[in-house]
Amino acid sequence: MTEYGRGPHPEPWHPEDPLYGDGGWGGQQTHSGQQSPYGGQPQHYPQQPQYGDWSQEQQPGYDHEQYRYYSEQGQQQYAGHAQQPYQQPGAWNAAGPNGQVPYAPDPGDPYGQQPPGHGGEQPDFYGTEDAYPPPQPPGRRRPGPEAEPETAPDEEEQHPFFTGAGDDDDDEEHELQGRQGRRGKGKKPTKKGRKRRTGCACMVVVLVFGGGLATAGYFGYKFYQNRFAPAPDYAGNGTSETVMVEIPKGAGGWDIGRRLKEAGVVKSADAFVHAQNDIQGGNSIQAGAYLLRKQMSAASAVKMMLDPKSQNNVVVTPGERNAGVYEAIDKKLELADGTTQKVAQKEYKSFGLPAWVQNNGLVKDPLEGFLFPGNYAAAKGMKPESILKQMVAQAKSKYDSYGLTEKARALGLNNAFELVTVASLVQAEGKTHDDFRKMAEVVYNRLKPTNTETNQFLQFDSTYNYIMGTSNIHISLKQINGNHSPYNTYTHKGLPPGPIGNPGEDALMAALNPTHDGWIYFVATDGQNNTEFAKTYAEFKQLKEKFDATSGN
99 with 79: CB under 8 angstroms? Predict the structure, then answer.
């Protein structure tokens, strides 16, 4: 028996119990022999639906239900319609539902006269492991812990840049808090991570703005240097260390200055360009290879490049034969005599000649006429084939630009190769620019099938000299008639098998645009530079007499 009621199990207080919450009980238990707080008078309580008025009048919801229970002998019994009503209001049924008296009523117990609930026994709501704690008398109740007031969260930046939304660390923290919450041990999330992310974000902003200011300052300084400050430059004539610098054809001042700077000759391209503009003739620097000293002032570098002694170039002059070019390359590269000529004969097919170049076995040198006049870098350590390739590439570029194949047919020639041959003859026989166009007409007129003056024989001394490797103007008839080379135009009609030299651009233009005045004869009357032309054989004889008188022939 407990202090809360009679029966095998405690009966919970009902909210409408007169003693519920009554401080008059004093928070003390009722002992045997002590007077009841209600004077020992029996108390009558209104019947409550949840306790059940087990009279013959049936309650709603219990129309035909019977409640099963077992007696002490194990016999199954039912409570319901057969249950007897209360004997007197507020008193226990002494027999109980099973006709037994499990406990003696206590007169001092205010709940001693209460009837047990239906079913005989009530479940214990306080003795199980998961039960609520039993109710306490009013005097013994302890105030519960006060609920912590909810504080409004601090307003923080919501932008992902400051909050760090999407970070892997934040996801891990949320996952950890979720696991702790499921275990019932979750703690209030701290703001340390957010503060850390906010600090990092501020640091990033500072670095970005700082980097922007530094970049602006750097470019501002460079702008000032370029606009107002003098260009960086060395002082003096340089060190004792020399270096070879190759300047390609068509390179301007900035390109030359950049190459010199990369080679360590000058300190900046700007300084070189300024010096080139200030020094007279500075803009006339030609393509080629230059032997210069390192760490020179820009002015010293310009002056040295204008000095022919510093130039390591091979110069191909208009009309020069390939034999002279080969010798010059050997000398510049300090190679044995004949080295470059052997390379040319062996590897000429790999030098990039035009497809229309002929080599039928009669051509003395397939590269003749294709080492275009100009300056080419040639210094010790270079290979002759690299220099020859530059010359051939320049010739091919020039010939392609003039469209020689189409122009050759318009001039009565078979191909562009013959046109180059004509240009080489014009270059060899002409003396001045004015002579070239007249000389080209002489060639074309003598090649005509209707030519009855020379019967298609060119009769040029230059072709004979090419065979012999000489430049002799005094050639006897015996020498001429005794040579049967296909290059001898005194004994063979038409053009020679190939060019007899490397024509320049003036001779090439003259071959493309000859005069149409009827010239068919010419004589160098002074034996040197003065060439005179004639249209008839009689005029030619007069010029021949003039030449004999001048030269003593």
Answer: no
Which residues 6+ apart lie within 8 Å of 546 measured at CB?
523, 525, 532
Residue found by looking up tokens 């406990």 in the block: 103
Which pTM value belongs to this model?
A: 0.56
Tokens found for residue 140: 């013994």
118 close to 67: Cβ distance less than 8 angstroms: yes
Half-sphere exposure of 175 (CA within 13 A, CB side): 6
Give the pLDDT of residue 59: 44
C-beta of residue 415 within 8 angstroms of C-beta of residue 447 = no
Instruction: Return the structure tokens found at 67.
Output: 């409640």
> What's the pLDDT tens digit per position in 481-532?
889 999 999 999 999 999 999 999 999 999 999 999 999 999 988 877 789 9
Cα separation, 427 vs 421, in Å, equals 10
CA distances from 441 to 334, 351, 438, 446, 519 (A): 43, 33, 5, 9, 6
3-state secondary structure of 481: helix
How many other CB atoms are found less than 10 A from the CB of residue 132? Answer: 9
**Distance, CA of 3 to CA of 421 (rounded, Å):** 140
SS (H, E, C) 371-402: CCCEEEECCCCCCHHHHHHHHHHHHHHHHHHH
Tokens 């080209």 belong to residue: 440
Tell me what pLDDT residue 192 has.
53
Q: Which residues contact 73 (CB under 8 A, 6 or more apart)?
A: none
